[in-house]
Amino acid sequence: xxxxxxxGNTNKNAYKALIAAEYSGVKIxxxxxxxxxxxxxxxxxxQMNPIGKVPVLxxxxxxxxxxxxxxxxxxxxxxxxxxxxxxxIDYGHIEQWIDFAxxxxxxxxxxxxxxxxxxxxxxxxxxxxxxxxxxxxxxxxNTHLASNTYLVGHSVTLADIVMTCNLVLGFSRILTKKFxxxxxxxxxxxxxxxxxxxxxxxxxxxxxxxxxPPVAKKPSQPVKPKDEPKKEVKKEPTKPKEAHTPVEExxxxxxxxxxxLDLLPPSKMILDEWKRLYSNTKTNFRExxxxxxxxxxxxxxxxxxxxxxxx
Length: 311
Hints:
Pfam families: EF1G (PF00647), GST_C (PF00043), GST_N (PF02798). Residues 1-82 form the GST N-terminal domain. This protein has 311 residues and is mainly alpha-helical. It is 50% helix and 5% strand. The chain contains eleven helices and four strands, in the order βαβαββααααααααα. Strands 2-1-3-4 form a four-stranded mixed sheet, with helices on one face. The longest helix is centred in the first third of the chain and has 29 residues, at 88-116. The chain is rod-shaped and about 165 Å long. Residues 243-250 and 305-311 have low confidence and may be disordered.
């Protein structure tokens, strides 16, 4: 049974296994008429990869998914494959750079690129963080390549295949010349790799993007015509009925009763004189006091008598 790779012919993750196969002399057939979103949702495909991700490699011993795992499998099909170096330390460094290419380069390029084409939510602060992370990764890679032609040793290894395939998306879709010029050793390395015969056979001609893709606009939803608000008929406020209240006639003021003392003849008693007499009397005190008191009492009794008659 030949090896069959399930993926589209422009899938950069499928390129890893195809380029490794060229170096290892392994034949891999790319499935025909693969349609993303359709072919990877069939029951047959989901039996090979339950979550429907691509690529998937069919082998005589069963399917393999995850692109780096597939590339490792293909590289090991040839005994003493140069793609895995010539020593244990080479093997460790190759695995190191494969992880670096996946976690520091590929992941951050996707964090920058995917929101711009509308496949995830675009947030300017998140984009700034992604660009910063891409620059950090490329700076580290640039430093290493300043004194190395390849990532490990003196020939192409699986680390170079994985790194270059991850950079293909960046250079062709979002990393402009202005951006990559800050990393000259990365530029030299990338263009050297993609022009290697085994790379070029799979990748074809690679051109660097001239601009960063604009942020995809969300499709505008049709606006429903607003229902015209019903005109409210203003009701005239009903005037409250005037309660018929009989006019109360004011009673004529009653004449004030006259003071009964006014009916008496003027009193001959002068109270102030009696007080002076009473105060200045040294002898016959009792007689003087009784005389004045009797006259005063007569006036009081008369007032009480006539007052009752009037009431």
